[in-house]
Known about the structure:
Chain B: Catalyzes quinol oxidation with the concomitant reduction of oxygen to water. Chain A is an all-alpha fold. In chain A, 68% of the residues lie in helices and 1% in strands.
Amino acid sequence: MSNIKDFLLNDFFVTGEPMIYMADVSIVLVTIAIFVVLTYFKKWKWLWKEWLTTVDHKKIGIMYILAALAMLFRGGIDALLMRVQLTAPNLKFLDAQHYNEIFTTHGTIMILFMAMPFLIGLINVAMPLQIGARDVAFPYLNAISFWLFFVGAMLFNLSFVIGGSPDAGWTSYTPLAEKALDPGVGENYYLLGLQLAGIGTLASGVNFVVTILKMRAPGMTLMRMPMFTWSTLITSVIIVFAFPVLTVALAMLTIDRLFGGHFFTATAGGMPMMWTNLFWIWGHPEVYIVILPAFGIFSDIISTFAGKKLFGYHVMVYSMVAISVLSFLVWTHHFFTMGSGAAVNSVFGISTMAISVPTGVKIFNWLLTMHRSKIRFTVANLWSLAFIPNFVIGGVTGVMLAVAAADYQYHNSYFLIAHFHNVLIAGTVFACFAGLTYWWPKMFGHVLNERLGKWTFWIFVIGYNVCFLPQYWLGFMGMTRRTYTYPSGLGWMPLNVISTVGGFLMGIGFMIMVYNVYYSARYGKRDTTGDPWNGRTLEWATTSPAAEYNFANVPEVRDQDAFWEMKKSNRVKEWLNQPIKDIHMPNNSGRPIIMAFFFFVAGFGLTFEWIWVGAIGLFGVLITMVLRSFENDTGHHIHKEEVERTEREAGRIS
Amino acid sequence: MSQSHSLNNQTPLEYSTEDGRLKIFGFWVFLGAEIILFSCLFASYMVYLHRTAGGPTPDDLFNVKEFMTETFLLLTSSFTCGLATHELRRHNKTGVIIWFIITLILGLGFVGMEAHEFVDYVGEGAKMSTSAFLTGFFTLVGTHGCHVSLGILWIIGILIQTARTGINPVTARKLFIVGLYWHFLDVVWVFIFTVVYLTGMVL
């Protein structure tokens, strides 16, 4: 009995930290609150039937985005804690171990559980509508992807209160991340949480490739696809080729830690550098997985609010293809200083610089799209316009880092930190906010308040520059990344104070955005037309929010910017009044969430190295797969009378 | 979907529905990801080949007769799996089931021999934790073995469905896809045979 108590207090629950007790309390309170609210309003059945078991791409997209926003909150809190600790020299706000854990979870969460699911959520919401499809190719698999991401993220976050957080950085370099130097379960959480989410992402990649290649509306050739759909296709191909590398690397490190393997140990022939290489062979394409969809979002938004066709459409596509190929050929630039030698460093330095060429071409295409147009400064477009100069700063400092010889100076300094936040925030985060504002009416049927949106925009963008620009100078002054404190007398404090202020400004911007969500839900302008922005692509051709079946009749595409062409040639009415037929749709299923639950059990068991729990979980997964195989699920039909009624109520047919 | 309709048509049954076409194409894309997965394991195995840390080397471990028999079993099973697909195209349910059962028996023989090989090695003191070379070996060959084992379970499930409902667009698609999977594992084994066993005996 005392053994169990000992285990629970010393190894299982994280104890001794006031912040973690606060987290324990808030987790319990939030859970109770959710239970009470759902029970009081009798919403359990609604939650299960409408959301948890859904295979509808639009609802899955919304769930992705909700989860990503929650993760943005958590990652953001991590960031602010770090900024507070670094504000002044010799602060004792966080100790070294706690700081290590926080920068690890901040990085991992922001990349894998915020940026990627946010973009995959937007893809789910918009891409099938943009190609005129009724769902993705494999709706059931889509639900599995979401739930795997979700349980992966939950497993990773659980480490905060049970067992202890990972502390070897988001790159989890070996041999530091090996058992000998990092005992405990923290790194296991990292390995298994990422493994689960990664499998889900791989499935999404396969799903989107097939959807885009096989399910486009008649007449939509590849070169008539909206740019966001193109970016999704290329991103998905990168996912299919990059994510298996992550799967293997994580599995190898898991084998080392759990079963005494020697892949990355410093003994018995292991090679720690092998991890570094595998990690970045996945990790660099991953950077493009989170930036290419962002480029797609900006392309669509800039062209919509310029009221013009995208300039250089073909070149945009070829640039993205070039970027996707090059993205696999630059990985060693992440470790120029780790002994690759001059020849290797030169090759990878040049291939890295080469990426700036297609990227630069895209920048000029966006600028020329706006050239001589009447730009509408909506919030979605403001984010896109702010992206261009801010991203260019990140891009140019990236080329500076690509000079291998000079990188010895910048490496692991705050210069690098400033650089990648400059590309990831100005690129990915701005795109997430732009896309969220742009597609919000398509998801919820009302527009986000523009005035509050502009407050968020200005406070966040100013805060972001105030936060990260000083870090370039801090880097030059010798401040290294992942340092938890610094002595006084180095002259670092003023810039660190400025940076911290910027961080909190970003936090305030985010809070205004959250308030905007509430405010707009109550008072926001309802979108009755389905086309609030005078859009150009097919997602605006249907109602807001789109009906379950997306389109009563699949549109016929005759040009790029398919919906714009329909509006110009007055074909919309004729298309809406075509005779409606029964529509075949997939059935909802509760099995994806149950399967993900078993994956969670397996992940949790393996994290604590309880192999039998892991085995039970995997057995459960296998059973759910067998049940699916033996299920005779041919979907259902929405009858034409029902479709007609829905369309009539939306005022689309008389 | 009547059988005669598809027989008159030149399109194979598994491709006769939209659902079938999407799933087969999706599976090809998934196999692309599997190629990357095995490529990583092969590449790392090659790097670790000589890092035996004073433990057994490939030459000490591998037994020509054993891995030749394994190879023979798996390659033959790929041939019989091809014959099953041939029978599928002829809509011959009994033929499909018989050839797949033979495939299963050969596959089980392969997995059994491989398990025996692994147990032998561990008995000789060549464990996962002995050296980086052995970690790489057990991971690469073990991953393939797990794939084959899963394939065996998968084929059994689909044969039960075929026996119950006969050859129709759904079972045809499932049989075809599991066939693709099986052939893919065979190709991977050809590389394991070359990269692991032949290289291990020669170099």
